Amino acid sequence: MPSATRAFAATGPTTPLGATSVSRRDPLASDVEIEILFCGVCHSDLHQARNEWNNTVYPCVPGHEIVGRVTRTGASVSKFKKGDIAAVGCLVDSCRECPSCREVTEEFVLRIDPKLDPAGAAPLLCAGITTYSPLREWDINKGSRVGVVGLGGLGHMGVKIAHALGAHVTLYTTSANKAEDAKRMGASDVVISKDPAQMARNAGKQDFILNTVSAPHDINAMLGQLRRDGTMCMVGAPDKPHPPVDVFGMIFGRRRMSGSLIGGIKETQEMLDFCAKHNIVSDIEIIPIQKINEAYERMLKSDVKYRFVIDMASLKG
Ligand SMILES: [Zn+2]
Ligand SMILES: [Zn+2]
Fold first, then answer.
1. What is the pLDDT of residues 79-132, one digit of tens each?
2. What distance in angstroms lies between residue 51's CA and the mean position of ligand 1's atoms?
3. Which of 8, 132, 285, 286 has an alpha carbon within 20 to 30 A of 296's alpha carbon?
4. CA 135 to CA 158: how far, in whole Å?
5. Closest-CA residue to 43 (of 154, 175, 208)
6. pTM of this prediction?
């Protein structure tokens, strides 16, 4: 029979998130029921809660970086049993019929190595796969030179994963005070992107640039950091359009610009296994769910090192 589950929801674009209750049905044959232990806070949650992409259905319970413990499984589930640690990310179902869906047949619950801290692992489900997927797509490996633009929720995962793939990582940032953290996470160099002399010294050096900055910035200056045939991939979802791109910056040097979203379920599992092998988790600040509205405001000011994660035990309080 359906059970009442506690939740925090937005009821409209201008209302803060508040306590509520949602009804959950019993697990079907292929369902896995989990008790959520930790949930990361992504900028997309805020966009969704405030209907900034004009597609929100209210009440809206945001969250897509979820790690939990299995409490019940449907009759045909064989990959999970009660007590296992499991994770759910940005995808929970799909049409399973279109060409993209037919490329993968995996189910939507993911395995997390119990040796990883479950709170630090939560952001891997969005920030981790969003950075891992393009690094794999462009074959980043030992000896690759990778620039990561921005050291936020996405950027700090990009630095860690690119370093673990064997790349020489350069962080591009506007804040000199992030240099120490970037080096601890695996960056070899830090370039202050608003310093023209430093940018000129590094022009043409990068094989690949992972650009995680969503705020408007000088994309042409970043393109100039690519070598011939280099690619810059945009992963930060902008609130407003970036300044125009100067096509000459791509014509000279045959440089490419691209974008990437998350990744499929198969690749997300591959990323979780890679992170377990290399002991990679997110740098997090744990909050009780009652502080979520405050966390959204701090996230807007980039006042977090480097991802908020909700301790869901606080929902019972
Ligand atoms: Zn996200
Ligand atoms: Zn489909």
1. 999 999 999 999 988 888 888 888 776 689 999 999 999 999 999 999 999 999
2. 15
3. 132
4. 8
5. 154
6. 0.94
Boundaries of every domain in the chain: 3-125+282-316, 127-259
Class of domain 3-125+282-316: alpha beta
Ligand nearest to the CA of 96: 2
Distance 284 CA to ligand 2 centre (A): 33
Q: Ligand 2 centre and the CA of 75: distance in Å?
A: 25
Q: What top-level class would CATH report for the domain 127-259?
A: alpha beta
Q: What is the mean pLDDT of the chain?
A: 95
d(CA 168, CA 187): 7
Identify the residue with better confidence: 8 or 99.
8
CB-based neighbours (< 5 A) of ligand 1, an ion = 42, 44, 126
> How far apart are the CA of 103 and the centre of ligand 2, in A?
10
131 CA distance to ligand 1 middle (Å) = 11
DSSP H helices in the chain: 43-49, 99-102, 118-121, 127-137, 153-164, 179-185, 196-201, 219-223, 248-251, 265-277, 292-300
| Numbers of helices and strands, H then E, in the chain | 11, 14
